[in-house]
Design a protein that fits this description.
It is built from 8 helices and 9 strands. The protein is α/β, with parallel strands linked by helices.
């Protein structure tokens, strides 16, 4: 990626799932850029297309129209350089794999020996665990970890792949508040190295910690985090029923008070 070039460019993307009964596309004319140092909070109601957009950026879905460029390449070409942490990772906790084993899965595309890894690969895996603060868990099994620890391990797996952009789909779902704060501190540190896109329903936290807020409800509108207001949030969630914003600080101007609902 050349100096000053956006990390991702999404231009006029429209997408419908084949056979869908919905007369409207799930994504319509979506256009935005992710800068090389950006930290994007992607928000919107359930069914608004957030995960679909991530899957298009990963090259797992092809848009009906429009153009997507990731790190100056097509999503398929760039996939090995995209770190992805899904909301529900497909890791079977009953398999006796260690944390280091899981992290080294991120090196598979770089290993000419398949699942056999050299000392260099192992060192890359341990370095990723150090960056995410869970190096001491390397020899433990996934089944022994808490939800927050598992998410850090999945990020370490993405780092071990030498990712240049990180996409996370609701990574703090099911994590308690203290662990969530620690998790966001980690992401803030990682954002010094590469851009991050994080899907979240916790709008108060997103608006307080991200640089850019992308409001998606079939169409997408980007704002600088300080620009996010109640009216903008209400517009993003219109026609999707009741929504609730979590208030993290009493004086946070972008969060609705607890239990205040808007349609």
């Amino acid at each position: 990626m050349s100096q000053g070039r956006p990390a991702a460019e999404i231009e006029h993307v429209t997408f419908s799932y084949p056979g869908s009964a919905d007369p409207f596309p799930i994504l319509e004319d979506v256009t935005f850029q992710i800068e090389a140092d950006d930290y994007v909070g992607l928000i919107g109601p359930n069914g608004a297309g957030k995960t679909t957009l991530l899957r298009i950026m990963l090259g797992l879905l092809k848009p009906d129209s429009g153009r997507v460029s990731i790190l100056g390449m097509s999503p398929v070409e760039a996939r090995s350089q995209i770190g992805y942490v899904p909301q529900h990772a497909g890791i079977d906790a009953t398999v006796p794999a260690t944390v280091l084993d899981v992290v080294l899965m991120g090196r598979l595309h770089r290993s000419s020996w398949g699942p056999k890894f050299t000392n260099e690969h192992v060192e890359k895996g341990m370095e990723a665990l150090r960056k995410t603060g869970v190096e001491d868990l390397a020899r433990r099994t996934i089944a022994e970890l808490s939800g927050g620890q598992r998410q850090r391990v999945l990020i370490a797996r993405a780092l071990a792949s030498e990712a240049r952009i990180l996409l996370l789909d609701e990574p703090t779902a099911g994590i308690d508040a203290p662990m969530e704060r620690s998790f966001h501190e980690l992401l803030g540190t990682l954002n010094e190295e590469f851009p991050i896109v994080l899907v979240s329903h916790d709008i108060g936290f997103v608006s307080a910690h991200m640089k850019t807020i992308a409001c998606l409800n079939r169409r997408l509108v980007c704002h600088g985090a300080p620009e996010v207001t109640r009216d903008l949030i209400s517009e993003a969630y219109i026609d999707h029923g009741v929504h609730r914003l979590v208030t993290h600080d009493d004086d946070c101007p972008t969060c609705l008070p607890d239990d205040e609902n808007q349609g």
